[in-house]
Write a structure and sequence with these properties.
alpha+beta, homodimer, 5-stranded parallel sheet, FAD/NAD(P)-binding domain, Jelly Rolls
């Protein structure tokens, strides 16, 4: 936007913006999408409207070649790559959720970074409420009504607060649910949430969230996840179907591949935000390692800084093209604020003035509303907030596509993958670990088989359209690949050789079952 | 809602409502979701709020056993079936889009029936606009900007009108698009659209839509679809990536399986809306074949009738339980209206008064706004309409999940499935028909191989991460199964035996390629 404005009607210079969505998400308001207090569309802004003279390519970047000065983008509806040549390149790649460090998180943790994540989470939360309303099994019901948020920074606290408000308000609309059954657990490694704001405001937020029944667990780190639980240190488990991880984030994969200098995965730039040794390449925002001239340290990866960095980069690019003086980046944060839901927030101004409660909340709203780009959006969000004040929370669940496909799941040792008598709507391939096939007969358990990686299970019930004849339980921690009925049938019918594989697997499993049965009758006899 | 109201606080009677979504969609306003003039959430209403004392099960019905008086629902998060026993059963299953009659429609036609469909279509339309904005190939660009709607009834006409308004307005925000490039084609079998409203209003609608640049093709039926085009009679093709079919609809699969009497797939009921021979079973709405006592014919499957049928069924169930007089169903339609976008509509009252233009549009809005259930929604929709009047159309695209998975596509004889040099991001299995592998060399074409059903292709570029070394073209009409990279790699890595299959396929393809190459060099030599 700055660059476009500076260019004016200059026709010799072209700006191309590559982004994988055609909108800009106003991140600070993302948690409000969960509760629906802002309508989904309104925290996002069409980029074409924000910068009408910029050429927008809605694609993912596949590779960046700093030598050839070319950015290659992913195929769209037609399977061809697109190459964009540049004279100046601005890298604003941000960072990404990096779930690979924690086992099971990738499969069972909900990321919370973009709009799709927020919408997906909202739908999931409504789904577990629907399921809990019908569920008779007390343990499973408890797991359905337990929501775990990992990370006590701004993002984690705001998410936990909004989620807590929403779930407790929504559960009142379910005949068989009681808000007191709902558990929202916030995990934080340190000894006080919102460490950036200091002990006074952190303490305020802590007390406020506790009063609203959020369980805060200090000194506790998320260690991983399975299909059934959040894993804590010392082997503790919190059974849940909803685990939201706001940490950890890591460098963008494209940054990792760049041949320039990096610190902790971020691209090192000089005080002009230029990448040394690569003239015409600039970096800013979360992906850049920017010297803080005021403190001698490094600029924090916050929106406040990023916006000002954008202005400097725009200025310096124009200076490089048209000749002129480059500017150094210098900025001191004005303040920080975090929303706590329900007309409350905490805020700190100029590093010294602390605000909390409704005053901080009004401040929070005023600041972010002012920052929200686009007059039209300001108007829409204003109306949403007004309606949210007078109308009840919305609990409609908007599903846009079938959720079942090929996916991975992780189970902890001892967890049951499926039970005898369950519906056989999917097949499993064991990726790692060991499972056992268990038959319940007259109250006694009989282990029919042990399976190792590379083996298949669960196909019999699906092919014969019968309930599961035996349970399968994880012996160690296991990873499984799951194929749901629809995809499985497509593969079986149309992938040459697939049917033979499965006929053989079934034969073996039948033989094993019979062998086990005959052992059983011998033992009984 | 009627039944709940009649029951009052009577605690001995329980109502269970089984629905696959937790909301009720107000169908008449669905086309407005495409253009965004009503926000997505606002045409849907949480069922729990509409009937708070009803027990809602958000599940799909898997089977209905009229003898045992049991309805079985699909598994939720836990893979177990749920059985619901009943004393009285009301069947309001509606009808379903039945795409199976027309080849390729299932794979390439967009249904337009529920909210997910509307949202999916909106996202797709924005996607093709984004792609067209970047596309250099003139033919492909033209196909991207062509939108075909099949069916000139209420649903088709309203959809075409809204779509036309939206696409033309939105295309102005794209730097490289011109509204004049956009083609919206409406196919209608008869000789005038909106036949239900008679020639005067049909003629009005026809003229109005033409003035807004909708191409209306009469006497033309959709015959099928391929990945590249809508197929018309006499082999004519309209190249398009967006085909919306509002016809044909067929009976719900659950109705088909019921042992009661049916006419054209609909459940025959008597004047009390009871299903003969099955006491306690009632049917209404689009799935019921209801005698029209006024005309001696059959009640039309419209919302106007369905709402009144609900009232009668509620009354008659209460009469059956508590004793009382059953009521016969008698009703005459009050009128019909269809919105044409842009402050215009057509309407007919009491079968004789014709309205058109802005007056009909005001009437349309007033009627449907009054019918929209829930005071809160009325308020929200009112505000949306107000904002739509003063703010520009929204072009944000809300994607909630990855769209690639295992899917089927259809290609017509001569159509190209992929081109030499394309990115190899998916593999194909030939389900039916025949394809040829074509290599372009110095401007001449060389056919490397012909493949028949059960054969695989396209795996080499994917595995080697190279561009396609040859094109594949359909010789006859073909159906293919497509597996995208992510799923393919999961299968290859974790489905035992899969890797061997593909190693063998690759070896064969390599051998074929070499054989063809050596033939080629011999010929050249």
């Amino acid at each position: 936007m700055y660059l476009e404005k500076m260019l004016g009607k200059n026709s010799g210079i072209f700006i191309t913006l590559i982004n994988k969505e055609n909108y800009f998400v106003f991140q600070p308001m993302l948690p409000e999408v969960i509760s629906g207090s802002i309508q989904i569309q309104n925290i996002i802004n069409p980029i074409r409207r924000l910068c009408p003279r910029v050429n927008l390519e809605v694609r993912e970047v596949e590779s960046i070649d700093l030598e050839r000065q070319v950015v290659t983008t992913s195929p769209g509806l037609r399977p061809v790559h697109n190459e964009v040549k540049y004279d100046h390149l601005v890298l604003g790649l941000g960072n990404v959720m990096n779930f690979s460090q924690l086992p099971g998180l990738h499969q069972h943790g909900f990321p919370f970074k973009n709009l799709g994540d927020a919408l997906h989470l909202r739908n999931h939360v409504i789904h577990v409420l629907e399921e809990a309303d019908m569920e008779k099994d007390a343990d499973f019901r408890k797991a359905l009504l337990t929501f775990v948020v990992a990370g006590g920074g701004f993002s984690g606290v705001e998410t936990a607060a909004e989620l807590n408000d929403f779930v407790r308000a929504a559960s009142r609309e379910y005949r068989n649910l009681n808000p007191s059954e709902v558990r929202v657990v916030l995990l934080h490694m340190g000894d006080l949430i919102l460490p950036e704001l200091g002990p006074e405001l952190g303490g305020f937020a802590d007390k406020l969230l506790r009063r609203r029944k959020v369980e805060i667990r200090y000194g506790t780190r998320l260690e991983g996840a399975t299909a059934e639980a959040a894993l804590l240190p010392d082997g503790e488990k919190i059974p849940t179907k909803t685990l939201i991880a706001t940490v950890p984030s890591g460098p963008h994969p494209l940054c990792v591949d760049l041949p320039c200098k990096k610190e902790r995965g971020r691209i090192v730039v000089n005080e002009y935000l230029e990448v040394p040794d690569f003239p015409g390449v600039w970096a800013l925002g979360d992906c850049a390692w920017i010297p803080d001239l005021k403190t001698g340290g490094i600029c924090p990866p916050t929106a406040q800084y990023a916006v000002r960095e954008g202005k400097i980069v725009a200025n310096n690019i124009m200076a490089a093209i048209q000749g002129g003086k480059k500017k150094q980046f210098e900025f001191t944060a004005l303040g920080m604020a975090g929303a706590l839901g329900h007309h409350s927030a905490v805020a700190q101004l100029f590093g010294k003035i602390n605000l909390s409660g409704i005053l901080a909340w009004l401040f929070w709203r005023a600041i972010y509303w002012a920052k929200l780009p686009g007059l039209e959006r300001k108007f829409r969000v204003g109306i949403d907030w007004f309606l949210d004040g007078i109308l009840p929370k919305d609990i409609v669940q908007i599903k846009t596509s079938r959720s079942h496909s090929i996916s991975y799941e992780r189970y902890g040792a001892g967890e049951v993958i499926f039970r005898q008598g369950d519906v056989g709507d999917r097949v499993y391939s064991l990726v790692s670990g060991e499972v056992e096939v268990v038959e319940q007969l007259d109250g006694t358990e009989k282990i029919l088989a042990r399976l190792s990686p590379g083996e298949f299970f669960g196909e019999m019930a699906l092919i014969n359209d019968e309930p599961r004849v035996a349970a399968v339980r994880a012996v160690t921690n296991v990873d499984v690949l799951i194929i749901y009925r629809q995809d499985f049938e497509a593969l079986l019918d149309h992938v040459p050789g697939m049917k033979q594989i499965f006929d053989q697997v079934m034969e073996e499993h039948l033989a094993e079952g019979e062998a086990a049965d005959s052992t059983l009758s011998k033992e009984n006899g």
